[in-house]
Amino acid sequence: MAHGTNAEMMKTNNKKLILNLIRQDNYSRVDLAREMKLTKATLSILTEEMLREGLIFEEAAGEDYSGVGRRPIYIRLREKARYVIGIGLTRSGYHTGLFDLGGNAVRIERHKYCSDNADDNIKAMAEIVERYKKIVPLEALPGIGVAVPGPLDYKTGTILNPPNFEVWHNCELSKKLSALCGLPVRLENIANAMAVAEQYFGCCRREKDFAYVAVDEGIGSGIVTNGRIYRSQRGYGNELGHISIDINGKECSCGNHGCLERYAAIPEILKGTGYESWKAVLDDNNESIIRKEAEYLSCGIVSLLNLFDLGTIVLGGSISEGGGKIAEIIAKTVNGRAISRHAVRVVMSEAGHERALAAASIALSEFFF
Amino acid sequence: MKAQNQPIAKENNRRLVVKLILMHSPISRMELAGLTGLSKMTITNIVSELIKNEIVEETGSTGSGVGRKKIYLKIKQNSRFFIGLYIARKQLFSFAADLCGNIFCEKHISLCNETNDSLTRKVLDAVENVEKRVDVQKIMGIGVTCIGPLDSEKGIILSPPDFYDVHDLPLVKEIQKRYAYPVVLRNDMDASALAEKYYGAGRTLNNFIYLGISDGIGAGVISNGLLYKGNKGFSGEIGHTCIDINGRRCSCGNTGCLELYAALPADYVSLEYKERALLLDKSCKYLAAGLITLINLFDPSAVFIGHKLAVDGELAAELLQKEINGRYLASEQRRVEIKPTVFSEKSPMVGAAAICMDEFRAYP
Fold first, then answer.
1. What is the per-residue pLDDT across A140-174, written as a single tens digit (0 to 9) for each?
2. Is the separation of the CB atoms in A337 and A298 below 8 Å?
3. Which terminal residue of chain B has fewer beta carbons within 10 Å of its beta carbon, N or C?
């Protein structure tokens, strides 16, 4: 809150807002001025500048326009005007990609770690970035987004101490990668990055308050509130897997009792059932396991809703493979239990599981939207 | 994200400067420029205007050190007033507060068997009473804190549990029928969190939580220096998070809600210390589970406890601190301080001033 607003920040803010609006919907200049409560003159100065920069173009509404009067001229995002690079780290390797403003992939690749030394791997990443830099004009490529398992210090771009990620502990990834390839680097945790990917390219394009809940070997959450990622200064938090749903329940390695993860993470729910994957449970349509999992997740999700007051829950990770039945059950359950009076949507992830795209979304959020 | 133009930016900068002076006073113009990222020139202009309007005053300069003496700024006492109301379950408190959060002309009346109409009448009478006793020219607005749930955006008291026949009451509209002042309505937990932010121990913190326990349990969250509001203002309902999936059904529709286990009885304050200590011990065991949930989700650097829990605040803080240590994630890397609020049971009242300050317009 401590930042004042000067003329330059005002302009950056307003341009971002325009890009955010036209990303979501049809807007003419008049519509934009009205929505943003700016005068047409002020708005035109901004759009003229953005036209010159090539970020937007004008397009007459199609034959199917059904409003009254003349067909309006819409301001559109020129997807091929700019590009960003996304790098998504997993425990076994990393995905890299070069994407345009519409999230369309120019390149997308998967790599194994080349050694168990972080610096060697950063060097390898920088070489890939150098390759990508030759594909598009340099002035059209403002930076790189990197998504990693949390916790991390997003301000300094340092990975802290994620479990099973020892090679990268306390690595100042942003600084090191940026020094090697000469582009700004933004670090974000993977659940938050996935949430932003849903916001730009998935099922939350017009949503301002929602959570992305990843159910895999663990349970993670990323939250977008008022259109921006929710994060604390210290980089912890958002640990849905470690809220207790049973004060007398199973002990967790984190020191707490009855953590949601100990019941609803995929390996836990499959334990003793004979199934080897969530997809197998669905293929078999094993009602009782699906209902049990839905009950556990609902319990955690209601807490999330009552604390963050969200409009939508997006389920991602392996729980989202093989059908949306569980989303329907959870939607019904949580809508009957949450405090808020507005209906909550529970849906399956649409942006897919591409970590490079999620990472690129962080760069898009930083530089454009 | 909202669009900005010159007048909006100017007003935002002005508000920001007032808030920063309030939270960091005594503070110099130079320090304000550093904190806001605004030019020294812009700060000087804003401050001059605020001094001219008697909102801010210069305070004694420090004489030590070489070079020119630094002049510090602070908010002027009694220069402007807010009318504050706190609607609790059984009482209605009314008072005036200045920009520094000093409270005076305090009165309270009891509430019982209220309807929308009778409560509205009592509220309007209370406003009138306070208005009579301060300089009308200096009144900036009316802040109402109330037990939830509310719709703050529309200014409506929705359906607080066990609250007589009061529900869906558009209180802000009712007040504005008679008064032209700006009116803000917020739930008592959010307001208490803002009280801590502007006037209490949270002034220099950007991420903290206020946890209020009485016969209900709720939280107000300050995140990156701002009140966390969520989609429609229904956030922070920690009392209605499940701590026992096999537990009792709650009237809210959920199962095993924290509130069912950790709330304090209505007569808690009037009990003997020994009895209170026993109740507290039991309550804190459950509260710890809720507290860990808050910490693992919001990552606050401090949690201030209040409402009835403030009666034995030190003891409760100690019990909770002991319960949670080692049980939240990354306990060794980050400390979370549990402290009683500095306002004892008055947080929601100071909160009424704080919600006005939060939406403060220097020149209405």
1. 999 999 999 988 998 999 999 888 899 999 999 99
2. yes
3. C
Quote ipTM for the complex. 0.93
Interface test with B, best of A243, A262, A297, A369 (most B CBs within 10 A): A243
pLDDT in tens, B295-311: 999 999 999 999 999 99
Of B207, B128, B232, B203, nearest to B354 by C-alpha is B203
Report yes or no on B363 lying in a domain.
Answer: no
Same domain for B45 and B111? no
Q: Could you give the percent of chain B with pLDDT greater than 90?
A: 85
Q: Is B235–A309 a contact, with Cβ atoms under 8 angstroms apart?
A: yes
A155 to chain B, minimum CA–CA distance in Å?
13
How many C-beta atoms surround the C-beta of residue A115 within 10 A? 11
Question: Which of chain A's residues have a Cβ under 8 Å away from the Cβ of B37?
Answer: 3-4, 6
User: Are B17 and B131 in the same domain?
Assistant: no
CATH number for the domain spanning B36: value is 1.10.10.10
**B317 inside domain:** yes
Q: Which domain holds residue B243?
A: 201-341
Which residues make up the CATH 1.10.10.10 domain(s) of chain A?
7-77
Q: Is A205-348 assigned to CATH 3.40.50.300?
A: no
Suggest the residue from A247, A252, A269, A335 to mutate for an interface test with chain B (most B CBs closer than 10 A): A247
The residue of chain B nearest to residue A232, with distances taken between CA atoms, is B299
Q: How far is CA B224 from the centre of its chain?
A: 15
- pLDDT given at position B364: 45
Provide the number of structural domains found in chain B.
3
| pLDDT, average across residues B93-118 | 96
Residues of A in contact with B252 (CB under 8 A): 337, 339
Q: Is there a contact between A302 and B242 if contact means CB atoms under 8 Å apart?
A: yes
Chain A hits for B302, CB-CB cut-off 8 Å, are none
Q: What is the CATH number of domain A81-193+355-367?
A: 3.30.420.40
Q: Which of B3, B233, B238 sits opposite A309 (nearest CB)?
A: B233
Q: How many residues does chain A have?
A: 369
Find the range with the poorest average confidence among A66-75, A122-131, B44-53, B245-254: A66-75
Is residue B132 included in any domain, yes or no? yes
Q: Return the residue of A nearest to B35 by Cα.
A: A2
pTM here is 0.94
- Domain A7-77 has what CATH class? mainly alpha
Same domain for B165 and B53: no
User: Are both B66 and B92 inside the same structural domain?
Assistant: no
Q: Which residues belong to CATH 3.30.420.40 in chain A?
A: 81-193+355-367, 205-348
Q: Which of B237, B296, B334 sits opposite A234 (nearest CB)?
A: B334
Q: What is the CATH number of the domain that holds B206?
A: 3.30.420.40
- Burial of B52: CB neighbours in 10 Å, binned 0-12, 13-18, 19+: exposed
Of A236, A256, A309, the CB nearest to B231: A309
**A14, A227, A295 member nearest B4 (Cβ):** A14
In whole numbers, what is the pLDDT of chain B averaged over residues? Answer: 93
B246 and B353 assigned to the same domain: no
The answer to whether residues B207 and B336 belong to one domain is yes
Residue of chain B with shortest Cα separation from A312:
B231
Contact list, B9 vs chain A (CB under 8 Å): 5-7, 10
Answer whether residue B196 is part of any domain. Answer: no
How many other CB atoms sit within 10 Å of the CB of residue A44?
Answer: 15
- Rounded Cα distance between A56 and A49, Å, is 10
